[in-house]
Description:
Chains A, B: Keywords: Methyltransferase, Nucleus, S-adenosyl-L-methionine, Transferase. The structure is a homodimer. By secondary structure, the first copy, chain A, is of the alpha/beta class. The first copy, chain A, has helices at 24-32, 34-45, 48-51, 65-72, 86-96, 138-148, 170-176, 189-197, and strands at 55-59, 77-82, 103-107, 120-125, 149-156, 159-167, 200-202, 214-220, 231-238, 243-256, 263-266, 278-289, 294-303, 311-321, 324-334. In chain A, helix 2 packs parallel to helix 4. The model of chain A is unreliable at 1-7 and 10-20 (pLDDT under 50). Chains A and B meet through helix 1, helix 2, helix 4, helix 5 and helix 8 of A and helix 1, helix 2, helix 4, helix 5 and helix 8 of B.
Amino acid sequence: MTTNGPEATCLTSKDYYFDSYAHFGIHEEMLKDQVRTTSYRDAIYRNKHLFEGKVVLDVGCGTGILSMFAAKSGAKHVYGVDMSNIIHQARKIVSDNGLADKITLLQGKMEEIQLPVDKVDIIISEWMGYFLLYESMLDTVLVARDKYLIDGGMIFPDKATMYIGAIEDADYKDEKINYWDNVYGFNYSSIKKIALKEPLVDTVNGTVIVSDACPFKEIDVLTAKKEDLSFKVPFQITAQRNDYVHAFICWFDIGFTQGDTPIYFSTGAHAMYTHWKQTVFYTPTTLTIVEGETIQGTIACAPNDQNPRDLNIVIEYSFHGKYGSEQHTCDYKMS
Amino acid sequence: MTTNGPEATCLTSKDYYFDSYAHFGIHEEMLKDQVRTTSYRDAIYRNKHLFEGKVVLDVGCGTGILSMFAAKSGAKHVYGVDMSNIIHQARKIVSDNGLADKITLLQGKMEEIQLPVDKVDIIISEWMGYFLLYESMLDTVLVARDKYLIDGGMIFPDKATMYIGAIEDADYKDEKINYWDNVYGFNYSSIKKIALKEPLVDTVNGTVIVSDACPFKEIDVLTAKKEDLSFKVPFQITAQRNDYVHAFICWFDIGFTQGDTPIYFSTGAHAMYTHWKQTVFYTPTTLTIVEGETIQGTIACAPNDQNPRDLNIVIEYSFHGKYGSEQHTCDYKMS
C-alpha cells in the first residue's frame, strides 16, 4: 500500500455534527476530487434535456457546485439544503455567479426543513462516505425522496455497488499494526488491538490486489429503504496469483444511469484517485493463497447502537487452501 | 512547496475539546514523529542523574510515552495528566510495561485537578501546537508550573524560539489560492478571500526559502507569563538571492537546555520532517526582491476574543526595493 504522507485519512475530519464542514478545507478536497466532481458535472451537463425546466433538489449542497451545474443545465429552479454553515458561503458563490434567482439555499436538516414546493422532479446529491456508508447522507436522501420526489422522478446518482477483494500488504501492515509491538522500547499492544479493529482509509496501489473483486452490495437509490443500509451478505473471492493475504479491501462504484448517457465512476485501487480512497481491513493472520483458491465469507454492516454515526462491520471468512485452513470472525468499527 | 498528498494538514483534527485525541490516530502521528519523540527521549535518558529519585509531572501525557521515559530514567514517581479519554489506554500501556507503581495517570484539566503531592521537581510536557501557539498547551504548563513546581525546579523543554522568513511559492499559491478564481467554470472568489486569511500548515521544501531567518519571539518556559503569549514584535528579513516572494513562512525551534547535555530540535524547512510542518502566510501581492534587500514589519499574535482557541495573527510589512515599494497589513486566523 502506498500512502500520501505519514498519515492515512483522519476519519474524524469528515464530521457534520461539529460543523467542521463549515471550514472550506473539506470542500476544497471534494471539489478538487476530479473524478467525483467531473462525473457529476458530466452526468448533469450531458443530460441537459432532462434538467430543462425541471425543479431540482440538491441534498447536502455544500458550496453549491451541483446546484450550479443543474441551474446551468436549464433547471427551472434548484433548492439546495445543507445543515452546515458553509451554506453562507454557498449563497455568496451562487450570487457571485448570477444564479441567485435560480437557486434557493436552505440551511437545516432535510428531515426538519420545509421546501417552498411540494414536489421536485430530480434529486441530486453527493451523499457517499468512506466505505460508501460511513457518515454517508444516504438515509437523508431517502427521506427527501419519499417526501419530495414526484412519481417517476429521477435521482443523480441512482446506483452504488460495493466490492471486496484481498491484498498483499506486509510492509504497510508492519507500519500500521505491528508498529505497536515496540514503541521506543515500550509495549503498546493495547493500541495494536484497537488498530486491528479500525478499518484504514488509504490509497492502495492496484498491484497489491491478489484476488478478483466480489460485488457484495448493490444499492438502487430509487427504491432502497433505510433498512437496506444494515445488511449481512455472502462473498467469495478467488486468488488471481500465488501470494500472501494480509487484508481485505473494499471500495465502491457509482452510476448515474437514468440519463441517456450513463456515467459511472469507481473508487477502486485500479481507478484514478478519489478522496474516498479505499478501505482496508487487516486480518488477524496472514494467509498463504494459491491461484484459483477461494476465500468465502459474509460481510455485515450496521450503524452502532450507541452511536449511530459509527459503523460496525463484521467480516466472517473461511479459507481451505494448500498451505492451511483458517476461519475467523473479525469485528471492525469505523468511528 | 511540496505537499504530502492532495491536502495540507487539517487543523481541526487536533482538537482537544471534542476529544478526538481519544482516537489513537493523532497519537500515532506524534509518536511516529521521530524528531519530536527522540528529542524528548534523549533529553530525558541523557540526563538520568537529574531524574533519579525525583517527582515528575507530565502535562498532557497522551499515551504516556514521556512519563515512561521519565520512569525508566529513575524518577521516584511520575504524575501524568490528560483530559482526553486516551488516558484509559495510557493506563493500560503503563501497566503492560510494568510501570503502574511508578506512574499515576489522572484524567482532568490541569487547572482543576488536585495532584496527590504538593510539589514536583520536574515538569515534562509536549505542549507545542502548529505555529507553536495554535491549540498549544503552554498556558496549561504555566499554570502547572506556578502551582506545583518547586523553586529551582526544571522544565523539559524550557526554550522555544519562533522564526519568520520569506518564500517563493508560485505553483502552490496557484493551487491553493488562485484555484478559487475558476472552479469548474464558476467564480469562487468568496472562498479565495477566506483562503488568503488562513495560514497553511504544510511541508515546505527548503529550496524555496528566499531570505534569512528572523527569530521574532523567544519563550522561556521557566519564566514566561500568560500575557507573554499575546505579543506584537518587529521583524526584519533580508533576501539571500534575487527572487519573488509569495508568502511568509514561520517555524519554531525547541530546546531542552537545563540538562548537562542540551538537546535542540527545529521544525524549519531546512530540518527533518516533523508533524508540525511549517506555517505559510500568503501575501496579497507578489514581491520582486533583490539579494540584500530587506522586508521590515511586525508580527502580532493573540487568542481570538470570541473563541480563545482560535489564533489571530497580523503581519504588517513594508518593502522598498529596486522593483517596487509596498506596504500591507494582513490579518490571518488559525481556526
